Amino acid sequence: MIAFSVFAALLLALANGANDNFKGVATLYGSRTSSYRTALIWGTITTLLGSLLAVVLAQELLRRFSGKGVVPDELLAMPSFGASMALGAALTVLAASRFGFPISTTHAIVGSMIGSTLSQSASVAWPKLASTLLLPLLLSPLVALAATAILYPILRRIRVASGVSSDTCLCAGKEVLEVVPLGGLAIAMERAESLSVKLDTTVSCQQIYSGSFIGLEARKCLDVLHFLTAGLVGFARGLNDTPKIAALLITTAGIGGAWPVATVAIVMAIGGIAGSRRVADALNDRIKFSKTGKYASVRQAQLELAPFNEERLRNVALRLRDIFQADDPDRLRLRVTDEFINRLVREVTKGFKGDVGVVPRQFLREFVTQMDLVDENPEYVPMEEYGFEPQSLNDEEKLFLSGENVTAADDDDLVPAEDAW
Asked: Does the structure show a pLDDT above 90 at 229?
């Protein structure tokens, strides 16, 4: 039975590698930043490093997933209990991997622990289970969501304020300058080379430095950071998952020392190399955006947020007028006419040089203000009183009005559906 327990635990490690190893690097493959093979190798290496580090850093996880204090000690002493717990979790994760379902091995282990305990008509220490295992499982997605919601807007504002886009390049090279010689009349200008550093687009740098320069491109730097953060996810997952499975070997087979963790780490790496393809394809194919002609299903994992045009602005205004809670709806419709809406669309887009994609926030604010004025002042006629001036501009609007080249790729709110930047 001990041999079977070891087999079941290693089978779980193999299943974990097949289902989980690729998750950390899935965005590298899905965004076409790397090939499947490169992403798999990177994910395997980083996960293995995290798994091996668990030998010295994850003693608390080994203790928690041993089951002590959660299930009766007499059950933990039975090799059959550990074998059934490991086998139940392993078969669950293997089945999910077979059908390409990315699931949590931790959830499978906890569920198998509870099921194995209840099948023996034994009691589960629910308060202990909730505080040590269930609560972290529930809170971790929320913590990750909150951290992303806080960090992303901050980093995005920094990028926009600094004027950095996907084509930005920090370039250094020898710039050719036309100079006038000192001490006399010159028939022609002479040329001199000067070492300079510029922050511009790659195309501009090629023109300035005649195609020969050293540069750091923003997109390439982003790809490097993408690789590093994806590897960090794999590293953290290896550090976190390996001791959970190793705890089964220690508890059921009585194997001590660093060997259980090291063995699980190696088997997880083998499982990832051998069985990650289905999960990788699932994460890529089920999340990517697809469109047939001008039609896209709203049931996809990603939605297409098409940029505004004049027709969409006009339709939004008409709908807002219909649902606006006015004291006198007839007067509102009489004063805020279709002709006024068309004029407002023209004036707002004209204020932003005809770029409709920049103006929705300004347009909606101005339109609602005009409806408020009509509702509050019976004598107010917007066609006679109103004149548009851009106000309370955000960073993107300020950059646009300043004459700088702000493209859709510079504004994440307006990024085309499949723009990776």
From this structure: yes
